[in-house]
Design goal:
By secondary structure, the chain is of the alpha/beta class. Helices cover 41% and strands 15% of the residues. The mean pLDDT is 97. Bound molecules: flavin mononucleotide (FMN).
Amino acid sequence: MQNIWENLPKPFLILAPMEGVTDAIFRQVIAKAGRPDLFYTEFTNVSSFASEKGRHDALDRLKIAPTDPPIIAQIWGKNPDHFSELAHALDKMGFSGVDINMGCPDRHVNRAGGGAAMIKTPELAVECIKRAKEATNLPVSVKTRLGFTYLKEYKDWLTLLLKQDIAAITVHLRTRKEMSKVTAHYELIPEIIKLRNEIAPNTKLIINGDIKTREEAEQLYQKYPDLDGFMIGRGVFANPYCFTNHTSTREELMELLNLHLNLFDKACEENYHSFEPLKHFFKIYLNNFPGASNLRAKLMETHSTKEVREILAQEN
Ligand SMILES: Cc1cc2nc3c(=O)[nH]c(=O)nc-3n(C[C@H](O)[C@H](O)[C@H](O)COP(=O)(O)O)c2cc1C
């Protein structure tokens, strides 16, 4: 099997996994706007997959849209047996890799021992990586933060991860304690590159945090050509075309909104989807053109895609 990490351009761009945002519907919208080199799923809990009750939800998160590949499945948890079980199952689902989340700062996730809490249980983290690697033929990668509480944790933590012979590591340049409240620590990039080059020169190094556009990623790459890739998260909220250097028009944004509505309706035919969370996406499309905020305010009062469409029809 081809190793996706060896077949990407340099530098490559990734749409960051974002719970409640980067589902199969939104990924299709971004593919239409201008796709990144690689998609990730939202994270899926390994123990949900292992339980009868949670498996349906887990499988729903792991649905692959036609425009997704290449796509990496992101997983989280703390039970090595469950890592093994899900990593094995992912082999046959059409994914190009398995990524382990060791950076999520969410309290519920951390109380359950997963995400950034793994930074505090390094032996368990190593065991989960090992078990995932043994169970799958897919390349295994890790996405993490610099530390749990203190910045100085990054050296020991990243050294440990780099010693695990992983295919790629994405470093969100903040600690768990910093959440997203401080500017990403770009000043540490040279040190992180040095660690990677010394310990695991074959592990791809991806930087994440505050990168909003392809242009910004390219500028960072010019400064640090040893980096392999860049991951953009919230930049996509400000501009769904952020993986291109294209400036969108009102018509293009409305087209994306219509595509999102159509895909949402289609998904509802298969499975119940609540309408309310769909409203969070409106600000992505109704942005940066005259009258956008008025239109957005009207759409926020709606209760169905039918009502949204009626308002949009009056606008045109
Ligand atoms: C709404 C939201 C949901 C997120 N969900 C995930 C997730 O499921 N897995 C993950 O690794 N990171 C998750 N993150 C973190 C992002 O992947 C990324 O690391 C973070 O937003 C920093 O990158 P940015 O500055 O480009 O947004 C999430 C972030 C946001 C804003």
